[in-house]
Amino acid sequence: MTDLNEAAALLGRAKRVVVLTGAGISAESGVPTFRDALTGLWERFDAQALATPEAFRADPDLVWGWYEWRRSVVQRVRPNDGHRAVATIEARVPHCTVITQNVDDLHEQAGSAAPVHLHGSLFAPRCSVCAEPAPVTGPADEPAEGRRLRPPACVRCGAPVRPGVVWFGEALPAVGLQSAVQAAADCDLALTVGTSGLVHPAAELPLVAARLGAAVIQVNPQPTPLDPVCAVNLRGPAAEQLPALVEAAFAGGG
Ligand code: OAD
Q1: Does 119 qualify as catalytic in the annotation?
Q2: Exposure check for the chain: N or C terminus, fewer CB within 10 A?
Q3: Atom of ligand 1 nearest to the CA of 82
């Protein structure tokens, strides 16, 4: 049996599925991943070094500029066949929870109903002091690539507005994390797609699922620390592997 057929058999009979996605699923839409080298004007920056509360305190204009650039990229791109395949899985299996570490909205655009955004969203800025939600300032005209940008002031207290994402050293949204852990504990199949499996607690979700007896399928062109717990590793880009998996799992199923 090929890896694809084995994965399709697991997906075809699964009743409770968790799909955990990372930056790799959006790569083919044109959103850069975190740990692949940055290109262009941002290449001299380390994405992880920009994603901390300390970085924002030290240089808010740099960090706000970086996230506004990311948002402008995301607003210009479209979901790919990988995101669409995830939405199909959601529609076809009896229970499916989509959990993403991505701060883009490409799962929603592809038709996923309510993905859990474990690391927040580019579209939910808030005050860095009083947490008052702030409006998204419309589509950025041109990507502010490599440029500092002054964050807007909070309408309530005047402090700088910050991106609505989770930074290193910050807690994940409690409700989202709780429902993600619950879904991983209850599933019979976990599908992990395009994540390096290096950032916790997200990376623990497939481990929880495996420990409690679920099968784990991984889609990633590269090996990751999650390889050992996976029943099947589909090595390749998500936009190719996921549609093939969906086709093989549900072919002829109406
Ligand atoms: P990473 O950038 O760490 O990893 C991306 C993964 O996607 C790698 O394992 C690649 O091999 C894989 N990949 C690349 N192209 C792919 C493709 N076409 N199809 C499938 N996989 C592909 O991104 P994440 O694992 O999402 O957190 O990173 C996790 C978290 O670390 C992010 O949410 C962010 C980051 O720092 C915060 O900012 C809190």
Answers
A1: yes
A2: C
A3: 19
